[in-house]
Amino acid sequence: MKMIIAIVQDQDANRLSQTLVKNKIQATKLSTTGGFLRSGNTTFMIGTEDEKVDSVLEIVKNSCKSRQQLVAPVSPMGGNADSYVPYPVEVEVGGATVFVLPIEQFHHF
Amino acid sequence: MKMIIAIVQDQDANRLSQTLVKNKIQATKLSTTGGFLRSGNTTFMIGTEDEKVDSVLEIVKNSCKSRQQLVAPVSPMGGNADSYVPYPVEVEVGGATVFVLPIEQFHHF
Amino acid sequence: MKMIIAIVQDQDANRLSQTLVKNKIQATKLSTTGGFLRSGNTTFMIGTEDEKVDSVLEIVKNSCKSRQQLVAPVSPMGGNADSYVPYPVEVEVGGATVFVLPIEQFHHF
Ligand code: NI
Ligand code: NI
Ligand code: NI
Question: Which InterPro entries does the entry mention (chains A, B, C) (predicted)?
Answer without folding.
Answer: CdAMP_rec, N-reg_PII-like_a/b, N-reg_PII/ATP_PRibTrfase_C
